[in-house]
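Tokens in:
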């Protein structure tokens, strides 16, 4: 598909079908998030998208990665959005950008930076001045990077989305107009569109902006409703859900390939444009997974495989081949050959050689803070007064008697409870009380609180402070005088931990602890890290945070890109909360427990 450089008329939606450069055009898109795919694999994944018969790449832009601290902007290396768009152009793909500022995406706080929550009056996704000021500053940095890449300026960007799924939130009638103007005033001149599920279409639109729908099945009438709502306009399914995401402690979600193809065929026969969400899901590396909360808080896994046409590690699936065959019947031009799959293998097990107790690493924290009352992660004076975004926070205070410790549901999201650094229990949303034995004298109570992932969708978005978010009581008396350690486990923290004196594993470790082993590789290739007989924690390879491991599943292996390995020695560090094994295992393929078909899950119609 040659990119049209000479015609200035971009993607046009003024009739029942799109035109691009004045010629009839159908969007056949696929979502691949640059921030979920190691940069070394960008080309491979985009070539596979192109070879499937798709003509458009769509991607979200995560604000919380690009502005991790207020006024600190990152747009290089893994976050080089411009390079990603230029690569898509080189491969022959059009691009639709979804810049947010809110993106959902099963991503922590829907992509919004946690430092916004330091404002006690914050009203996210509204025209509250504290929010709009932050959005304007961010867009001043982001949008000028997109403007020169627009179709009318000779680039591949043919459309830009106005926010995301606002109809499901809809707290401020002026908000979408604000975002629209924020884009237009900074030079966005291509087609603007919104994206909502069936229930959100009623209040998710804004004047002069094309509406699109998100769905997985046609039985709920989303496409027909969109046609009635927006007559004489092209129909676009902005998110056709090719699968679904996973949460810890439940089954692995899949969606039947034949059912997907049957629905896609019907959409194509009706002339509808379509974007596959996801075409390739990738991985929510680090602590970036989101969570859902429809009455019960459930954090999402690090794997974002999504049962998409391309697997988490980029393999072809039955969906890919069926989709390619289907799309070929709607095309007059032959497709490029799919690239070969990338090499991947199971490596020899690595023996754990050393460990160091978490308590020994407290000196590696940025600093510690003292206050009468517990302070939430976001309000800690850490990271140049931007608060703590991710990881763990240790809260310690002295107590002088036993009794009933009550979290009063102020633990966000999970706390290991220690007396004199000995584990006595776990507090979370379900368990809010722990008995402390009556012992005379002073004792140190410790709560190691983990942010398991901020909710990314729904009304709970506004209350996503983490750590201890209020008083905890001992026999109904609020505890005071806390010391707080920010254990965000960022690269600097892990590097400092590496310089400490580690202990040989011959001695029984005390938990939580960091465990270390050396992986010797002759030729770096993709692989998966497996941790049978380990319990819960985080995996780091050469300083890169692969994500969380948890024996409850369904994710049983963490994707390790070969590009993050080096020939020779590679250091693996595992933070483990409860129980370590003697070895770290590897596998050629991912592993999940029980599976469930999302066709039977009613919540898929709501999101």
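Residues out:
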């Amino acid at each position: 598909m040659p990119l049209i450089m000479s015609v200035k008329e971009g993607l046009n939606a003024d009739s029942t079908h799109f035109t691009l450069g004045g010629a009839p055009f159908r969007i056949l898109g696929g979502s691949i998030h640059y921030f979920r795919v190691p940069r070394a694999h960008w080309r491979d994944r985009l070539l596979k998208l192109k070879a499937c018969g798709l003509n458009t790449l769509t991607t979200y832009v995560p604000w919380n990665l690009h502005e991790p601290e207020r006024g600190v902007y990152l747009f290089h290396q893994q976050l080089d959005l411009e390079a990603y768009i230029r690569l898509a152009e080189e491969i022959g793909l059009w691009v639709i950008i979804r810049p947010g500022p809110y993106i959902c995406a099963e991503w922590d706080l829907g992509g919004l930076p946690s430092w916004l929550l330091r404002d006690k009056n914050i009203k996210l996704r509204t025209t509250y001045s504290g929010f709009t000021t932050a959005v304007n500053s961010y867009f001043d940095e982001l949008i000028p990077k997109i403007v020169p890449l627009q179709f009318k300026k000779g680039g591949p960007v043919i459309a830009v989305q106005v926010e995301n799924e606002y109809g499901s939130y809809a707290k401020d009638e002026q908000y979408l107009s604000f975002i629209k103007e924020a884009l237009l005033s900074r030079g966005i001149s291509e087609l603007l569109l919104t994206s909502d599920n069936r229930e959100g279409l009623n209040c998710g639109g804004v004047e002069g902006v094309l509406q699109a729908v998100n769905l997985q099945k046609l039985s709920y009438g989303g496409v027909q409703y969109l046609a009635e709502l927006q007559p004489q306009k092209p129909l676009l399914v902005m998110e056709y859900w090719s699968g679904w995401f996973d949460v810890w402690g439940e089954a692995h979600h899949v969606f039947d390939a034949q059912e997907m193809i049957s629905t896609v065929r019907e959409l194509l026969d009706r002339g509808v444009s379509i974007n596959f969400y996801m075409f390739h899901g990738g991985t929510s590396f680090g602590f970036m997974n989101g969570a859902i909360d429809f009455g019960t808080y459930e954090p999402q896994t690090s794997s974002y495989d999504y049962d998409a046409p391309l697997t988490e590690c980029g393999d072809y699936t039955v969906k890919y081949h069926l989709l390619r065959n289907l799309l070929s019947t709607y095309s007059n031009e032959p497709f490029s050959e799919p690239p070969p799959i990338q090499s991947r293998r199971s490596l020899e097990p690595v023996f754990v050689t050393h460990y160091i107790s978490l308590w020994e690493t407290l000196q590696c924290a940025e600093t510690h803070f003292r206050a009468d009352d517990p302070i939430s992660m976001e309000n800690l004076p850490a990271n140049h007064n931007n608060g703590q975004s991710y990881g763990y926070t240790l809260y310690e205070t002295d107590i002088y008697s036993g009794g009933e410790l009550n979290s009063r549901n102020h633990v966000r999201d999970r706390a290991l409870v220690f007396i004199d650094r000995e584990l006595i229990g776990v507090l979370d949303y379900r368990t809010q009380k722990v008995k402390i034995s009556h012992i005379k004298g002073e004792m140190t109570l410790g709560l190691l609180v983990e942010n398991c992932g901020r909710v990314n969708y729904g009304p709970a978005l506004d209350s996503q402070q983490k750590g201890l978010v209020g008083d905890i009581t001992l026999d109904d008396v609020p505890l005071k005088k806390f010391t707080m350690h920010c254990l965000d486990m960022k690269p600097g923290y892990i590097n400092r931990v590496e310089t400490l004196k580690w202990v040989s594993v011959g001695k029984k470790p005390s938990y939580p602890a960091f465990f270390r082993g050396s992986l010797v590789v002759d030729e770096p290739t993709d692989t998966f890290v497996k941790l049978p007989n380990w319990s819960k924690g985080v995996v780091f390879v050469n300083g890169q945070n692969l994500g969380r491991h948890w024996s409850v599943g369904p994710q049983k292996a963490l994707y390790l890109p070969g590009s993050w390995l080096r020939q020779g020695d590679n250091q693996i560090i595992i933070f483990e909360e409860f129980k370590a094994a003697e070895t770290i295992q590897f596998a050629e393929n991912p592993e999940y427990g029980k599976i469930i078909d999302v066709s039977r899950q009613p919540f898929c119609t709501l999101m």
